[in-house]
Amino acid sequence: MKNxxxxxxxxxxxxxFPLFAHAQSATxxxxxxxxxxxxxxxxxxxxxxxxxxxxxxTTTTDSTGSPSTVFTPYVNTYSLTYGTTPNICVNFKATYxxxxxxxVDATYGYGAYTATVYVTGTYAxxxxxxxxKYIILGVMYAPPGGSSSVTYQSDTVVGNSTSVLSSFSxxxxxxxxxxxxxxxFGVSLGSTTSSSSQYTQSxxxxxxIAVTQSTSLxxxxxxxxxxxxxxxxxxxxxxxxxxxxxxxxxxxxxxxWDGYGYDTAxxxxxxxxxxxxxxxxxxxxxxxxxxxxxxxxxxxxxRPWAQTNVDGSSPAxxxxxxxxxxxxxxxxxxxxxxxxxxPAYSISWPASGTHTTPDGRFTICHDTAPCAQTIDYQPNLIxxxxxxxxxxxxxxxxxxxxxxxxxxxxxxSSTSAFGTNFxxxxxxxxxxxxxxxxxSATSRQTTDSASFSIVGPDASYAGPIQFVVYQDNxxxxxxxxxx
Length: 483
Hints:
By secondary structure, the chain is mainly beta.
């Protein structure tokens, strides 16, 4: 009878003071994360004796504006004993990064009163770095004449804009972001150690990231005296970045490309190597130029310091010389960055009322002064030009080129939740698809410019004496074409 009286008195107290019961609440903060499961811990103490908590429902809000229903609670039962501080862990599934809030209804015994548990925290999917074999940064086109030169100095337009998001399944939410400003950082064992002084990165159009030359870098390219054509495309230079790293954030249904770094296991700066078109198409074989070609092909392009790719292949660039256009090897992908690697290619004159070639690759100089549409190339004539970039019309913004390559992933990343999520998100288990495209840096009036020094040929020259100046809409450099 005594026990019954105590229980009745306790029930009356709960009935008379229900607000006291509702006052019991706790804040659960996010703790250990496994995959996209967020594990939370908090402590409850029962009011009297032993009690049981049933987690019965959840409502959620997302402060970042991503999908409104992002948590799926696992319904659990917890036994609580007065005087103890048991850990209550509530697991949630998050599919999108951001800061979230949830309210969990906890139903207690001894009168079935309830308390509301407030859950809040930030979900950040795991991140990691991958190592592709190379990135094509640009093409510099040789001017006419062996004594002529073109210089890109303090020029932040020269470079490329690339997207890799087509490498991932459409069932994943995909985005591109940069959280470290414009620097490209050196990465060693997952931590940043330095930053490049030669190139910078920035968010560009169509979920791409642009890598462009910094003001501290200056490059000059000389031409070649071709007795009949004036310009020789074999002396064009293609620039290849050999120690790139890409940072990704990967959740169970979300992938974000967070920018570039470079691997300091190679050298303390970005390893950007130029190679001439004549090295790749075989024209320089059996000539005095081949020694310089072989130094690159058998040296830097072998990437002996890099780790094995995820498909078990060597980190070296694949392919032989001469490359066969369209064969898909790394050397042929590099060679194809220069459209003149195809002997059948020529720049077609823009249609009436436009300034861009029909394929969208080149735009003729226009609208900007000083902006020379033609340069002179005549015996005993030396002419200097300062060439600004022209406003790039919308029809120029459709030029693209696409290629594939495999990549490496550190053992630290591949065995983590990041490695599992990243591999699951990819369309192919071992290759990335690269899409070089128009860069917004050339879509507006800019003060950047390139300088040309054009030294005329000898008196016996019988080729074209004028060249039209076009800008490359993919790589921001100028090309010289006879009309």
